[in-house]
Amino acid sequence: MAEVAESSKPMFAGLSDVSISGDIPVEGEINVPVGTPSQDNEYSTLDEPVKDTILRDLKAVGKKFVHVMYPKKSSALLRDWDLWGPLLLCVTLALMLQGGSVDSKDDGGPQFAEVFVIIWFGSVIITLNSKLLGGTISFFQSLCVLGYCIMPLTVAMVVCRLVLLGGSGTVSFIVRLIVVTASFSWSTFASTAFLADSQPPNRKALVVYPVFLFYFVIGWMILTFSPSA
C-alpha cells in the first residue's frame, strides 16, 4: 500500500521545496541597445542648410569628373553613384549640338531630342546587355559610369565649336578628327576601366563592344557637326 500511495504523488511535487537563495547573483543583462541622439543625427542631412547640400553634391560630382579624367581601379564612382553628372553632360552636349546645318530649318529641336535618346536609351541597352552577360554591377551604377564617361566627348565638342569659329576647311577637319578620336578613346578606356572588373573574364569583349559603338556614335555626331550658315 505504501508503494501505491507513493506512486499517486504528482511527478513534480518535490520541486516545490526547491528555492533560490538570495545570495546567488543572477548574471547577465537584458538591455535593448538604443543609439544616442548624436549617433542617429550624424548621418542625417534633413536639417542641414540647402547651401551645404548643394555644395556637397557639387563636390561629389567634381570628384567623379576627376575619376573619369584619371581613370583607375577605384570603387568611388560605383559606390557613390548619381545621375546629376550624366544629366548635366547630356544637356550640355545637346545644347552645343543645336544650330547645325542639318537641323537649321526647325531651330535644332530634333537634334536636342536625338542626343537625349541616343545617350539614355543607349546607356540602358548597354546596362541590360551587361546584366544579361552576368555582370555584378547594378543598373544605376552602370548608367552613372556610362554617363560620366561622356565628359571627354563633351570637352571635345567645346573644342570643335571653337575650331569651327575659324572656318570649316581641311585643317579644321583634321584638328577636329584628332580631338574627337582622342576623346572617344579616352571615354571608352575610362568606362571599361570601371566596368571590366564587374564582368565575367570570358565575356568582357561582349560588354566592351556595345560601349565602343555607343561612344563612337556620339563621337561621329560631334565630328560631323557643322554650324548653320
From TrEMBL:
Keywords: Membrane, Transmembrane, Transmembrane helix. Belongs to the YIP1 family. The chain crosses the membrane at residues 81-100, 112-133, 145-167, 173-195, 207-226. GO terms for cellular component: Golgi membrane; trans-Golgi network. Signal peptide: none annotated. Residues 70-221 form the Yip1 domain. Pfam families: Yip1 (PF04893). This is Protein YIPF.
